[in-house]
Amino acid sequence: MNSLFTCLAGPMSFVLLLFAEHAMAKEPVCGRVLCGGRGVPGVVVTDGERFTQTDSHGAYRLVCGENAMHVYISVPAGYTVPVAESVPMFWIRVDTLAVREGIDFTLLREPDKGRRHRFVAMGDPQVRNRRELSQLDSLLAALKRTVAQLPASSEIPVLVAGDIVFNRPKMHLPSKKSFAVLGRPVFYAIGNHDHGPIRDSETPANEEPATRRFREHYGPTYYSFNRGRVHYIVLDNIRFRGGKRDAYDIGFGEEQLAWVERDLSYVPKKRAVVVLVHAPLQSRQFPDPEHYGDSSALLALLDGYARVQIISGHTHCNSVATPSRRVTEHTVGAACGGFWEGPVCLDGTPLGYKLFEVRGRRFRWRYVAAAAPERLFSVYPPDTSRCGASRPASELLVNVWDWDPQWRVEYSEDGGRTFRPMKRCGYDDPRALDPVACEYFGTAGSPRIAARPWIKARVTDHLFRCTPRSKRVTIRVVSRFGETRTQQVDL
């Protein structure tokens, strides 16, 4: 009898456990959004699929989807949130909750409501080990010095455009601690090398996928927040397929696009929008829309907003695309440059970050080279090593890192009395390679890094050339915002 009861009780206990877990999944998550102990009304709450808003007392109630890992808020304008090891805590894990009531969020008041604010954008840190992390620390120290020189009118967050690590999930924790030195919130997008595969000896073979590890460290892979008159959206546009070649496609998928549509339903069209993703949504180098999957569907959802700034990384090059008057995409040079193998990105852009200033719905920006914060370009006199680029030895080259069509790049041979425009090299010119990038990384068919021969200098369309006849040349570069830099070159 006892044996029979035991046999029956085992399966029955399992069924009851499944029932309890199913009931917990259907049980709503309830709590409040508080600031100084008082409820904040109208705050958007989501689980990545479903939405609600807090009531007049700051209370919310949300029945989560079966696969929900987080419940999180879209931080309203005029507020910030506490930060833990650089990560803004606008999210709470719900898949591990024993109780689903009293799940509260804390907001902190932002004194000036963020109507005039700044933020920093950074491309792929992509660290593999402690050596590379120490190099990242040096870059972050330079960023900290840059931010310290700015007016302390409001908090200055950092937006990182994915590939936080290079297939090494164990590096997420030390990476977060490195970013924490900045003393400000860091909003992270997920990149293809954060999705997987896992490649480190400390990870068991049965470890959960790398994507889940990312979400455990940084929260949801798509979310939003607000500052002043700007709505910020962070998205995942890597559809990782895996395999021996770590295959992936660029795109968002129906579920994420549906979430964006619902998220934007709470945002008036008169607002500006900043979108942070990993892979570019468009570029001058690869204009074919097929290259970008369903990115056009996202752009359609953004149509009609006052201004749209898209921030991406992924290419390890720096570029600015302006497909329309209201939309600008900034593909920010990688923090790691050429995968921590040299002081520049694959297009010759120095290691650095991009600083944005926002006034209402208007944006200004400037790429900041960590080692030379005031510079906007590099100059290569004639006879500079071309490293297989086969350029004429008589050419003077200027690499204007953050160029777009509203910039002017000129040279003078009469002491600056008259200036002429320099000729821009296009993506169709296979010789449009930065000499320093060539020196460190080599070129296609002639790599410089034996252990990583796939790293090579890449063609850029922000390289300018002229063939001077005098022994002294003055270079003048004027940004789209009127910022002017000159440099005299003796030949």
UniProtKB/TrEMBL annotation:
Pfam families cross-referenced by the UniProt entry: Metallophos, MetallophosC, MetallophosN
Residue ranges annotated for the Calcineurin-like phosphoesterase N-terminal domain, each copy included: 31-107
Domain of life according to the entry: Bacteria
Keywords: Signal
Annotated ranges, domain Calcineurin-like phosphoesterase: 118-317
Keyword Signal: yes
Residue ranges occupied by any Calcineurin-like phosphoesterase C-terminal domain in the UniProt entry: 329-484
GO MF term set: hydrolase activity
Signal peptide: 1-25
Protein known as: Serine/threonine protein phosphatase
Organism: Alistipes communis
Organismal lineage: Bacteria, Pseudomonadati, Bacteroidota, Bacteroidia, Bacteroidales
